[in-house]
Amino acid sequence: MIKKLFIVFLHFIIFYKIVQSRLNLKADYTQKHIIGYSKSDDLNFYNSQDIIWESIDTLVLPPNLKNLQKIIKISQSNNVNAVLNIEGNSLDEDSLKQVINQVKKLDADGVSLIFYKNPSSDKKYLKKVEKMGALLKEISKEIHFSVSISIKNIPYSYNNLIKLSNVDYVIANAYDLGIFDGPVIANSDTNEVRNLIGAWNSTDTNKIILSVPWYGYKYVCDEFLHGIYTSGCINSRKPQKIEFSEIYNYLVGAEIQDNLYITSTEIWNQTSLNPYLNIKEINGNSYDITSDDLLTYYQIQYDNPRSTYLKIKDNVIGGVGVYSLDTLYGLNQNIIKAMYSSINRDFI
């Protein structure tokens, strides 16, 4: 008898946790919402200490991950919504139905629709968004639905999105703002980001999420003005996107693909309020730093806890997003905790 009662009690606890998890779906505008993106298909990452589940509310995932269903279950078991990141510009009737079916099949917690191009260039984009939202809310009124656009999009775009009742959040992507040809500038200039998000005038600021980068860009310097300890890098080639884990290796002087290099270590740009570092890489196996023929110069523009904090501090918005959580995988726990602490809800 006691054994049967224990089993019934156990089933009740499991059911209660599932219900609580589903209740967490509904957009709660009484507290700041934290969204974390991840590209990783590695289950070890999601089961590690390198993702701090209690610091995020929603996990956004690519729809084509091999382990997607397992990752969704891990996320939900940590009381974090798991939603699919869907490209919006190419969305049509057929792909829209496929997305809805995938959400149902995976028991995902919703969709985040991302427009890489200015959505206003597509006259039908608002109807696409409306239809997607309506179909999702048919599954559950509490299901998550957000729309992601560049922070530089014109007011027409975000104001019309915010007005849609089925859209829980409009995400302002504050990255890839640098110029890729000429003097190198920040990927996500902190002052520019604060000015841009401040211009997102809306009657419903609780629906605005500011998404910031946890990655950087590595530029080849055709010319280095005034030496390795300044920001004067002139670039004419497409830069390479670089994960924070690799940036950190440069910062601490770790060996990188057997290359010999000298770094400036981290420098702070007082104008953009962003960190950067310069690298003098020695080609070959000799530390002959006197011959320019043997040297290649690089500059890495990125964000750290300080610049992330300064971007979000005291903004009148509904929350923060970060792209992407998995770039911290394998780093020292103190570094990981510092990055997560910079998106603390109390700072917004």
From TrEMBL:
SUPFAM superfamilies: (Trans)glycosidases. One of its GO terms (biological process) is oligosaccharide catabolic process. It comes from the Eukaryota. InterPro entries: GH (IPR017853), GH18_Domain-Containing (IPR051887). Keywords: Signal. Residues 1-21 form the signal peptide. The keyword Nucleotide-binding does not apply. This is GH18 domain-containing protein. It comes from Dictyostelium purpureum (Slime mold).
